[in-house]
Design goal:
By secondary structure, the chain is α+β, with helices and mostly antiparallel strands. It has helices at 17-20, 40-48, 76-79, 123-127, 130-142, 166-175, 194-204; strands spanning 3-8, 11-16, 25-30, 55-57, 66-69, 86-89, 95-100, 104-110, 115-121, 150-153, 163-164, 183-186, 189-192, 212-213, 239-245. The structure holds zinc ion.
């Protein structure tokens, strides 16, 4: 069990066991149960014990732009108007968040240097290697040591359900020639394993497999708990991936 499912105060949410152990980190992944547009910011702020106004989320564009927040002088509202799919900070009391309905939420933590990050990786972000770029920014900007970084790959569409066209499959195969088994052939159909691509991108940057948490929870297989864009033939519902550092 690499994740824990928590049902509390009529909310269902998820945490990685490996990140729960770290005292100064707050994190979660929401579900479709109990969460809605109106209560999400308030409930995350309450669970994290951080101000509601400290939640930051970018305008996600399925790219690989990453925004680093290293000063409170930055207006958080302004940051939330920026386009991008990754956020990193070393400042306490900021809630970094991304929205998901099948796309992969990727959590990044350097427990010693106290750096946290979150990224949104659909096929485009994954193809663009947002995971590798997030790790690169943690190293370049904050001096993270690769061996200290812990990564969590959260609930998202799995290779059980994520059928792709032959063309897209071939693009991944051609770009990531060193990555085995990222495509699964089944009944003359091709399925893409976004979890494995992100896992291998982290490994490629030097992260040890023991520091990459991959619970392999598929949103499309579990639509009683998660919104699934693919599974529902489109949806406005999103789960929120959030992470933040506490004081002290
Ligand atoms: Zn599935």
């Amino acid at each position: 069990m690499e994740t824990i499912e928590i049902a509390k105060d009529r909310l269902l949410y998820y945490q990685f066991e490996g990140l729960r152990e770290i005292d100064h980190i707050e994190h979660l992944f929401t579900s479709r149960i109990g969460w809605n547009d109106r209560n999400t910011t308030g409930q995350i702020a309450r669970l994290f014990n951080m101000p509601e106004t400290s939640r930051v989320g970018l305008k996600q564009v399925h790219g690989t732009n990453i925004v680093v927040i290293d000063s409170y002088g930055d207006d958080l509202g302004r940051i939330s108007n920026l386009e991008g799919d990754g956020l990193i900070t070393n400042l306490p009391n900021i809630i970094l968040s991304t929205g998901h309905a099948d796309c992969v939420p990727i959590y990044f933590v350097d427990p010693g240097k106290r750096i946290v990050g979150i990224a949104h990786g659909g096929w485009r972000g994954t193809y663009g290697n947002i995971t590798g770029k997030m790790i690169g920014r943690m190293v370049d900007h904050y001096g993270s040591d690769i061996e200290d970084i812990i990564i969590g790959i959260g609930p998202s569409i799995g290779p059980c359900c994520y059928e792709v066209g032959m063309d897209l499959g071939n693009e991944f195969k051609d770009k990531f020639t060193e990555f085995p088994d990222i495509l699964v052939d089944r009944d003359d159909r091709v399925f893409l394993d976004l979890w494995k691509v992100n896992y291998l991108q982290a490994k490629e940057k030097g992260i040890g497999g023991e520091n990459i948490i991959v619970p392999r929870i598929c949103t499309s297989c579990n639509m009683d708990k998660f919104h699934s864009y693919r599974g529902e033939n489109g949806t406005d519902g999103r789960m929120i991936a959030a992470i933040g550092l506490r004081d002290g």
